[in-house]
Amino acid sequence: MHLVHCGCVITQQGQDFKIKMANESTENPPLEKNKSVKGYASKVFKESSVSALSAIVSTANTPRKVFRILVFVLFSAGFLYQCIKFLSYILTYPTVVNIEIERPVKFLAPAYTFCNYNRIKRSKFCSKYPSNCIYPNEEFCNMYPNYCSDNSTKVPMVDSIGKLGYDDTIELGHDWKNLLIQEAWEEPDGPFLRLNAEEEVPVTCYSLGERIDDPREARFKEKEMWNVDDDEFVFDPEENDLFDPDSKPGIIFAIHSPFEAIDPFEKGIFMKPGYLYRITLQMTQEELLPHPYKTDCLNYTEIWLKSDRTGPRSQEMCRYKCVRDAFEYCVHCTDIHILYPKKTRICETDKYENVCPLVSSPGNLNLWDRMEPCIRNCKDDCLRMKFSYKVQESYITQKMMFNNTSKPSRIIKVKIYFDDSEIIKIRYRPQFQEVEAFSYIGGFIGIWLGVSLVQVADVFESIFRITRYVFRKGTSVCSSETQAKPEDNAV
């Protein structure tokens, strides 16, 4: 009985082993040597979950099969064409513009540049050049009573100002301590010269909050509770110290980015004595994208930090620096129109020698060829703030008078309001993120081929199986030939 029982157990184990081997042979069928690659491929695609492929393979009717193949090829071509066009467009790195309105707690404050429209102070001129000044006569005093307030006051002779150079303009111009009579948060930078283009004369100017080739951080305004402190200035144009009695007293005032110097005679406001100027500021911030996007901007702040806090912080100042460096190399002085801080004197008209050739040669470039490559590298700022404003002019009333004096006020008051610190932000963003591009291509596959991601994986599996079959079939043929050769030799 015991032997019979063991025999039954052995028989049962043998059957289980045969079943297991049969299952394995079903999952991994032996290489069908006589079956063609075409036949095996048809078998694989017939089993595929991709309905288009299985329908083509399983169709016995030849015309229907040709029709289905033609449709599949045309739709595949349409899918490839649309994918190629879409990818070609993506590789141009298109952008979209988003416009937002924000009220940040902290934001960049503007800079201010101001100049006395009367460029030479009469008292300074007559003190330095007494021979060019005379005491006024009665007729002159009747015409210009402000000139004769003091009997000891001299007035310049006619055409005496024509002999003055750039250095004289700086030395004899109005000092900021007399011009700005209400203390600001910092001392103004200057004096520096700007050109009054209409009169073709240089004028002494000053700036507050400007950061041109400057290691200091820019000034920021910050909300306290719900509002922002206004900026306020009080100027004295010193109209009793006019050089030319026919000139109009006043100042030129400009608002601009702290990272850009400007010419207030081009972009400023003329302000008259006895007036209050209320200026409402509006701010616009632009955010661009660097290469390879079309905006192709530069982060000048990052470059400034890497350069030990030196150099320009905007595209405009980068260009002016290129021009300044080329001028200083070629003529050993700089031009008054160049707004970047100057390291050398300003060129006097017809009093400089150009050491650079008129025509460039290898190793010896002319002025333009020195500055042009540098200017080309000055790209847009990745982040820039623009300031625009509205001006309201009104008289200074008795209650507004400075120091509560009874004399009619001849000062100039300026108040800058920050429009509830509202900033318009213009942001350039990539039109397509990586996930969006993937979704678009998936949509093309679904529309043209009706294939899901799972079915795409099935197609790749089918291709892999066919490729493996071709490889194994070739290997088997080679092995058979190798075994046949020894047998032939033995015979």
From TrEMBL:
One of its GO terms (cellular component) is plasma membrane. The keyword Transmembrane helix applies. It is found in: Membrane. Keywords: Ion channel, Ion transport, Membrane, Sodium, Sodium channel, Sodium transport, Transmembrane, Transmembrane helix, Transport. This is Uncharacterized protein. One of its GO terms (molecular function) is ligand-gated sodium channel activity. Belongs to the amiloride-sensitive sodium channel (TC 1.A.6) family. It comes from Nephila pilipes. Its main location: membrane. The chain crosses the membrane at residues 69-91. The keyword Aminoacyl-tRNA synthetase does not apply.
